[in-house]
Amino acid sequence: MGDPSGIGPEIIAASLADPAVTALCRPLILGDRGAIERGIAVAGANLSIVSAPDLIPPADPAPGILYLRELSALQPDQMVYGRPSPAGGDACYRYICEAARLCMDGTVAAMATAPINKESLNSAGHHFPGHTELLAELTGGHEVVMMLAGDRLRVTLVTIHEALAQVPELVTFDRVLATIRITNESLSRWFCKAPRLAVLALNPHCGEGGMFGDEESRIIAPAVAAAREEGIDAVGPLSADTLFHFAAQGGYDAVVCMYHDQGLIPLKLLHFDDGVNVTLGLPIIRTSVDHGTAYDLAGTGQASPASMKAALVMAAQMAQTGSNDAIQDPSPSGRGCPKGG
After folding, report:
1. I want to staple 32 with a disulfide (CB 3.0 to 4.6 A). Which of 43, 72, 217, 259 is the partner?
2. Pick from 268, 292, 294, 262: nearest CA to 131
3. pTM, rounded to two decimals
4. What string of H, E and C letters represents the secondary structure of the chain?
5. Going by C-beta distance under 8 Å and a sequence separation of 6 or more, which residues neighbour residue 59?
6. 271 assigned binding-site residue
7. Confidence of residue 209 (pLDDT cuts 50, 70, 90)
8. Which long-range CB contacts under 8 A does 225-229 form with residues at least 24 apart?
9. Annotated binding residue at 139?
10. How many CB atoms lie within 10 A of CB 178?
């Protein structure tokens, strides 16, 4: 459910009121009854809640029913709109832990998360920068990669939530190569055969022959070469100021970016409403909205559910691909991802 003080409950209600979403999956909400009831009211949805403490939703769920596993019983003063609380942060932690457990034991096929507030998570004693790092620990300490995705563009990140001043020392050969490998393996598993990857430079104009930095020749180019030796279709380093034009036109299936804003600025320019955050490298499927708790909109009914809907749809599609254990690739060349996948 995410942060009860944010827009999570209302965008969940709005998303699950859409038959196009519930036709693809059987949603089980992990969260708080009071928060979800309030979210239904804000969304103006004709929905009712059925408590599901032990069971998953039936194979043919009735329309207009939300199946809820109640993992908290927050008081009104613990979920005031726009005001993060330690109780809310602890509740979010429990929702995530239970979702990961259900995915790991095979009870559910995938998890899709609404936004959390990192301040409230940490104030409750759970010291993680966000979902990604917490899920990596909960599922066995796997090396993970954050991918943001929409119909026109996918980006993955070598470094995530790091101070910009620290990025150059964190962009290492091993980290760049691992990101390329995980991106390739995950796209091949869930989205398309033989994905085409573009790997960005760190510095302007690829360092301009060393005038603006040498990470390209010293770190990134050798990592790309190593990936190509493994059979991965990766090219780079490429200059970020021109590459995204070609990627958005379908020239690449994903762009490996060196730091957070390098990838998220173009992604959100194209997919502000419907982008999806996917954690690659986990043994489970996890998608999420690509935005925050939007405290300024919480409770107003103005928050768009588009990203939540897209996250649910993508999780369902990934689970279906995994159950089929095969990807149908309609491209004539047999390479690359179909649009919208």
Report:
1. 72
2. 292
3. 0.89
4. CCCCCCCHHHHHHHHHCCHHHHCCCCCEEEEEHHHHHHHHHHHCCCCEEEECCCCCCCCCCCCCEEEEEEEECCCHHHCCCCCCCHHHHHHHHHHHHHHHHHHHCCCCCCEEECCCCHHHHHHCCCCCCCHHHHHHHHCCCCCCEEEEECCCCEEEECCCCCCHHHHHHHCCHHHHHHHHHHHHHHHHHHCCCCCCEEEECCCHHHHHHHCCCCHHHHHHHHHHHHHHHCCCCEEEEECHHHHHHHHHCCCCCEEEECCHHHHHHHHHHHCCCCCEEEEECCCCCEEEECCCCCCCCCCCCCCCCHHHHHHHHHHHHHHHHHHHCCCCCCCCCCCCCCCCC
5. 26
6. no
7. confident
8. 226/173, 226/177, 227/177, 227/180, 227/181, 227/184, 227/197
9. no
10. 18
Alpha-carbon span 38 to 12, nearest angstrom? 11
The per-residue pLDDT for 59 is 83
Q: Is 126 annotated as a binding residue?
A: no
Q: How many C-beta neighbours within 10 Å does residue 310 have?
A: 24
113 annotated to a ligand binding site:
no
Contacts of 186 (CB under 8 A, 6+ apart): 145, 147, 278, 280, 281
Nearest to 233 by CA among 97, 167, 118, 331: 331
Tokens 């107003």 found at: 300
Share of the chain above pLDDT 90, in %: 81
Question: Between 240-248 and 260-270, two packed helices, what is the crossing angle to 10 degrees?
Answer: 40
| End-to-end CA, the chain | 25
Residue 339 labelled as part of a binding site: no
260 assigned binding-site residue: yes
Q: How far is CA 90 from CA 24, 120, 203, 227, in A?
A: 31, 8, 40, 41
In this prediction, residue 333 has a pLDDT band, given cuts at 50, 70 and 90, of very low
The residue among 217, 139, 156 whose CA lies nearest residue 191 is 156
Closest CA to 219 of 170, 164, 260, 182: 170
**Neighbouring residues of 94: CB distance < 8 A, sequence distance ≥ 6:** 71, 72
So what's the pLDDT on residue 323? Answer: 60
